Structures are given as structure tokens and as C-alpha cells.
Amino acid sequence: GLTKDEVKFEDYLTNTFLSLGYKDEFIRSKKINANCNDISKKKLGNCFQEIFNYQLNINPTTYKGLGVEKSDDNGAHDGKLVKLPITKDLVQNKKVYNIHINNIFEKNFITDYRIPFIGELSKFCYEKKRHISERFLNQNHTVKVLQTSDIFTSEEINKISSMCHLMKLDYGEIDCLIDADTRKIYVVDI
Q1: Following DSSP, what letter does each residue of 108-156 receive, concatenated?
Q2: What is the pLDDT of residues 115-162, one digit of tens each?
Q3: Residue 108: which region, alpha, beta or left (left: phi > 0; alpha: psi -120 to 50)?
């Protein structure tokens, strides 16, 4: 459940397989996500900006407008909306600050998209809708399976894929939001 792994992956698995007597099997095996050792929100935001050329992460002491404060760790589901800027003493340690994305396309419901990635982006994605009061939770009201190309342009798909490669992801799922006002997409989680 950690987003930053201090364990040296190769040494850990080598020792584990050796202790079990499976050295040859380990050497021949493919290591999934062996080089994807940081899926923190801060790293994700930096990679996002590098690929998409617009920002997700913001400085909460200088940004003016609505933002989202959430844990830098994965799976916390602790996001909350905050009015920015805030003073330096109010900035929470181990939190990251993102711009607020208006992903309301239907009254009182937000829409997220989750795309599986197995070496490449899947041809299908999940459209997840939640009541706005449950925006940052992991309880969906409805989930539909859709064609990825029906939601995202080929340029957006290429950029999402490039971001996965930049993060050194072999296997995982990507959470994307589309801003209803600007139509820009944002990769907010891996």
C-alpha cells in the first residue's frame, strides 16, 4: 500500500527466490512494475506537467482559486476542497495540492474515467459516476464500460500512454478527469 518503496526490489526478490531454491526461475521471470517505485501524487503531477504542458499540482500559498488538498500517498481517499491561497503555516505536511477540476457533467454527479494499462492503454475504460457529496470516496453510483477512443482523442491517449511510460508503469490503472469548463484532461492517479 505504499507509494514509495525503499526496498531494493531486485535484492528483495533475489533473496526471496534463493531462500526458496528458485534462483533460475527468478532470473528468467519478468518483473512487473520493478522500476515503477514512486506513484506519489507529487511525482504524478510532475510527470503530468512534463507530458501535458499544463499543471495539476499547484503551490497553495500562491495559487488563487479553488484547489484540492489530498494525501501524497496512494489510496487515502482523503481529498477536500480548499480556498486558496493559504498561508505557509496552514500547508499540510505529506499533502499535495491540485487545481480543482470541474468534472460535473450531470446535476449533482461527478464523472471519473479509469483506464487499465497492461504495457499499453486498454481499448476500454470505466466511466464512474458518484454523487458530488462523495466526490473523494471510492463508492460509485454507476459504472459503465466504454471504448477509450469514444472518450479521449488519439492525442490524449498518446499523452496518457507516454505518461505511463515516463512513470515506468508496466501494469496498473489510470484515473482521468475531464474538466467540463475547459475540456482539458487530467491524470490524477495511478
Answers
A1: TEEEEEEEEEESSB-SEEEEEEEEGGGTTSS--SEEEEEEHHHHS-HHH
A2: 999 999 999 999 999 999 999 888 899 999 999 999 999 999 999 999
A3: left
